[in-house]
UniProtKB/TrEMBL annotation, chains A, B, C, D, E, F:
Keywords: Amino-acid biosynthesis, Arginine biosynthesis, ATP-binding, Cytoplasm, Kinase, Nucleotide-binding, Transferase. The gene is argB. Gene3D superfamilies: Acetylglutamate kinase-like. GO terms for cellular component: cytoplasm. NCBIfam families: argB (TIGR00761). GO terms for molecular function: acetylglutamate kinase activity; ATP binding. Pfam families: AA_kinase. Pathway: Amino-acid biosynthesis; L-arginine biosynthesis; N(2)-acetyl-L-ornithine from L-glutamate: step 2/4. Residues 24-263 form the Aspartate/glutamate/uridylate kinase domain. Substrate binds at residues 64-65, 86, 181. This is Acetylglutamate kinase. The record marks 29, 244 as: Transition state stabilizer. Belongs to the acetylglutamate kinase family. ArgB subfamily. The keyword rRNA-binding does not apply. The lineage of its organism: Bacteria, Bacillati, Bacillota, Clostridia, Eubacteriales.
Length: 285, 285, 285, 285, 285, 285
């Protein structure tokens, strides 16, 4: 059992971080394992609520992965492939939006239960995320997959100032009112840039960037955005990590102070990153 | 072709109504035919946007009917019945919430396309609608069907004041974080009461209350809330109209000025009700 | 009798214009026939009140023509002429100011009766219009005729923001506290410029600018400010229309978006100009 | 020549009064000799501007006496008499309003010249003073003479808070939009009551209330409102002083702290009353 | 060394307390050992700064004990005694005020060094604490010892809202401008009442209230204000603890939610009391 | 005895000055004889309160001279000298701070008694004056004597806007939290610059700058900052006046409009300088 003094020490150690981030905005891409395991879920949401209470403004962008696949399967919707890429046709898009919407309100409800005040939005609300069609390789039509055209952050600013924690489904609205599926990391990065956030945190299912992908102890704690291209070239950053890291670089270039690729499988990874000196994941700055 | 003077006359005729409702809140239960037909849809949303621009604050609560049934069918979810009532089990509730969420954002997107600023919410956002379990006849367990426990209108007030049109899915949140399906008319009535709205408008697929249900020309234009019980007793108000009318009466008793059962099949029924002398539907006051 | 649907159509047609001018300022020079005929008067004021309610900010500058002449006659004040121009001596100026003041409050009272909130001002209030002496041809002294020296729009901004419709007598105050008669069109143009108004509307007793002054069907609907000088040279714009058009050009050069010379003899000319596609008068832009 | 120390003493003596009236409203009925003599005029307006700068909010209601009579004469309008009272017919009312309007702007211009920010209003502006017809003795019709029905002080509060000195013509607006002549003292009293003013000051052409009307040294400095009726009964207060005193009593009963009948022939009478111990005129409290 | 998870747990455990006290005011009487030992000093101030950052508003009232005695000695000022009580004569009072002033700014400087924004005040600033003379036993004159007459909390509210931590010397100002020494516990209690604080915390040099004064393990953790008198009667609460407890009771009766007698010798006692379940000291409620 | 008219004249003469300085900030260095004589003290404070009430914002920086010397003597603290300069060692600094603190609250109490709302601050409050160590001649260590490093005026702006008169002890806080004694004239000058004050007034015990130091009638009323260096060179400005004048020059260079060296032995010198044409002291501009 922990002594009073040890408790006091931990709280006191948090003080410089609380000071540093007071009034700042932190955009969190919430996805992967941390959305599936109910204990981790509870831990993530607790971290968000705690941040809000100590004066930091978290903004959540969530993914939907397995639930979307499950629902598509249950509905017997089979994906077409063009140039090796899954096509988001209109019935797929409908399922994506529905499942994201359900998950969105689940997160909101959990925030509210833990004492925060959550509000669930999609990119359609107040035209928060306008989008344009994205093409696949060789200009292939891959359906309703969109790129962020513009972020209209006014609504977010209003609800943040009023004390709410906004939770956002990465769905964009096209020029003709059509719905686009937006990559969650990309949406989070664009929102961080538009809000001039202090931090962008991407929760993943890996330790961070590893110098030797086979050695989990080879974590790179801090890396400059300028050094990323050569790491990709050398194959140190590879596969699914590449787009995540590119989101970070883009956010840094747009004025976000630091970006973080954290291991969402560690309970309270966000809290540890924000409030302690503990080295968690990789910081791209 | 219409002459300039006739146009001017119509606009001038709207002035007293614009004055009367300036700054007032109008809650609209949007459902039925008006949600299915794309021309009617366009007309309803246009009316909402127009209201907002001339200084009235519309708040929309929508239903989901046929889409929910369709999705349940596609997913092969069969409803159980207890005491003759359909039971909303957890997998049904999930579908209800997902479909409502999708429809919600569709309405929002249309508002935005027509020049308004819509924002889609459910009763879970900022605990807008807290709910308790509702029992069926003979205390039968009919699953996740809820009654409104409390409306927390603060978020609505904030977004209304900031110029947004809130669109609300009638989903409630229970004391343990469980999700409840709330009847749309009931939710609209409760919101109208909590917002001290000036008007509650329920869009239906009938002309209004008919003195002789078989005679469509026997529309009752205005009726006092106090006279409703005897009309129900006499069988003049019957079937699905009874709960709608009871919502109206409850809203009136809670301080809403007037309530309206309108024929949603008439294009621009809301606009005609609000801005002209034209007799549309039944007013319960 | 007009059908419900037609009424709805007119209101819906107004929506894009309401959106377009929402929160914008429109300065109206009110004079001529529209101030004499009581039905036209009622129509003009109704248009102003309607504009205010739908979020547009009208500012009225009025003339006084025949009433001033009448009162001068009743008082036996005869005008002197210098170089062919009527001299505004001090007793004439006193009459001008008194009559304008009376008309000003009449307009205000009518606005209030029709449900708006009018407030009557002259250029002396809060030094709204400061003026300097204007000379006639060959530097002739034509008395208390003034040019606008500076507009101090702060008071107007305050009362506009508080929901009032300001009605302004075109009287200016000189450096020594002396009173100057200012041309109404000029005052309206200067106010439109100072308020960075979206529109300047000058009500006249003609159809607008005619390509062939003898042919009333030869109305020029739209003309660029840059094209005005050559039209004057060609004699197409002539007589009393020249100073009006020059006010428009000056306002355009000072940042007013569009200016309009409307036929004040058409009932609701302002409303038709602002809220419909109907071609009324000449737009100088 | 006055020494520095004496100057300092006077300023220091003003301090308790400045403190006492800081942020308070003082309604001044401005009329009589003080409006005719240009030095007195300058002194009165200087006092108003000084008050405003040291944190007191003056509100001016002015009369028009001799100028109205003069203009009626010039226009050959002869007054009818009913039951011994002059009838204000519509052409008389028009002249009254015009002359008051001209005087109103003169006062405003002088305030602005002396460094204040004046704004001239009549009871018609924003329905400031609504009125009903007043009858003469034996219910005789005396034309457009009105009683104050209601003061709508919102506009005054706005302009006072924005730093302006409002100057008000005692003209009221009737239920049908008709114009009424209101007694200036009465209007000032009603405005003082509606604004919950701290002081009502009525400038007259006498020393105040004299215990012996023939002895100018018999000035009553302070009198309780409750003692007024017996003084009227005893004939000590008589003639034109009676309605003035009754205005004071009514204002006191409506919550105004003190009322003052001052001798407007004394330069800076207002300033001496407000900022020094000097006994000037009669205080009714 | 502590693991990341343990750190996270402590922070998470603080969340309910942060929520509970968010936006609340906590008045702390800072004195005794915790003011003398530099490590304890650092710990107390850290706790204050942390509280402020997580949304709680601390207000500090400090004592001066040994420093005052030391300075009186250095200056050779000997105390007189009347009825066994030390008399605060004017030269003593001067020393008290000077020493308190110096300690006050020391605390402020430490707050600022630790990242907070402190502001040091005495009861004289903006008449924060007005006082009247307090008499000793048998009405003996004990000099400039005062009782709180009135708290004027407006200045405190302003600086609290602007993000400052006010630090207050318990010096009061008498009706003639004379300076009074006020007991620090009493001043803290009166300020807590005037600010409607949520908590009053008195730092002492004992464990709290002991059921058996000889047994340090017999701490009474919670006690109702109503039960205090009988404890005093029974001699369980005795000596210097009596006035402290009476301050608590008075504060409770004036609307303060809970009061605490804490052991200031325990590092971070305030933080442990406010943010953990750890039982520290005695709560009087 | 003074007549009413003379009183009025003095008040009216103040008007242009009240207008001129309305809303402006005036920093006053209060020291010398004017702090010792109780009548002069009363006069100075009255002037400050009067200024505040008529819309000017006084900020006071005070000295402590003789009281500090007296207390050092009583405590038997002897000053060391390095290079002919008195060294402020830590025990001296403690006495300086204590005595300044006591004088500070005395001034505050007097302001409050005279109807103002004073608040006493030192440079430690909210880090108002941060300081660095100042060296003596030949880099000699003269102890805790500081130079102004930075003024953080936010707290001052807040309390000024809330209607308080700030009174400031010239004590600075060093980078390690150490306390520094700052020259009062220098502190006043730096505060005037940071607040962009309109005036800096330094109260001295001489008439001002004399052209012939032996001839008290040779007062230089106005002098340009640019002309100061040559006057120093010529020996016209000499001794203790040099640093005072240099403060003025520095303030002028930092944007303060005018600076004044006044004779604090003249009662109400500040008031006479600010509100009358009376030539008092020397203006450096």
């Amino acid at each position: 059992m922990q002594s009073a003094l040890e408790k006091a020490r931990v709280l006191v150690e948090a003080l410089p971080y609380i000071k540093k981030f007071y009034g700042k905005t932190v955009v969190i891409k919430y996805g992967g394992h941390a959305m599936l395991n109910s204990e981790l879920k509870q831990a993530v949401i607790t971290d968000l609520v705690l941040m809000k209470f100590v004066g930091i403004n978290p903004v959540v962008v969530h993914g939907g992965g397995p639930d979307i696949t499950g629902m598509l399967k249950r509905l017997g919707i089979e994906s077409q492939f063009v140039g090796g890429l899954r096509v988001t046709d209109s019935s797929t898009m409908e399922v994506v939006e529905m499942v994201l919407g359900k998950l969105n309100k689940e997160i909101v409800a959990l925030i509210n239960q833990l004492g925060g005040r959550g509000i669930g939005l999609s990119g359609k609300d107040a035209n928060l995320i306008t989008a344009t069609k994205k093409l696949g390789k060789d200009q292939a039509d891959i359906g309703f997959v969109g790129e962020v055209a513009k972020i209209n952050p006014q609504l977010l600013k209003t609800v943040i100032d009023e004390g709410y924690i906004p939770v956002i489904s990465p769905v964009g609205i096209g020029p003709e009112g059509e719905t686009y599926n937006i990559n969650g990391d990309t949406a989070a990065g664009a929102l961080a840039a538009a809000l001039q956030a202090d931090k962008l945190i991407i929760l993943t299912d890996v330790e961070g960037i590893l110098a030797d992908p086979k050695d989990k102890t080879s974590l790179i704690s801090v890396i400059e955005a300028a050094d990323i291209p050569s790491l990709i070239e050398q194959g140190i950053i590879q596969g699914g990590m590449i787009p995540k890291v590119e989101c970070c670089v883009k956010a840094i270039q747009s004025g976000v102070t630091t970006t973080h690729i954290l291991d969402g499988r560690v309970p309270h990874a966000i809290l540890l990153e924000v409030f302690t000196d503990q080295g968690i994941g990789t910081m791209v700055k």
